[in-house]
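Quick one: structure for this chain?
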Amino acid sequence: MEQQPPSDKGSLLIVDDQDGPRQSLRIIFKGEYNLLMAEDGPTAIELAKQHPIDVAVLDICMAGMSGIEVLERLKHMNPNMEVIIMTAFETTNTIRQALRLQACDYINKPFNVATMRAAVGQAMQKRDRRPAVGIP
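Got it. Here's what it folds into:
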């Protein structure tokens, strides 16, 4: 089985202040995507400034900068980035905020591996269907 060159892989940013979920997602998606890991919002923003990001998976409850704030900043930097929100503390208000800021999915923690794989896969497919910039 041939492995795709790294440039053909989508880039996946994983942001969670807890090491367990962050490392679980790293193991699930290792080799499938180019992975970028951040334990907080400011680090995620810096990574997004330095690297093109196709999909981001953000935890809502993080110290310093919430996942909603990170979502807003990432979408401001790159409106085409697909963002999946995950949380152990689901509220109607956070769901509403995430949808208003154009998150493509909202997943509860602890997450089901198949559900997370499907969400990231669908988000990556959206990236593949985007029209090229500058081409009519």
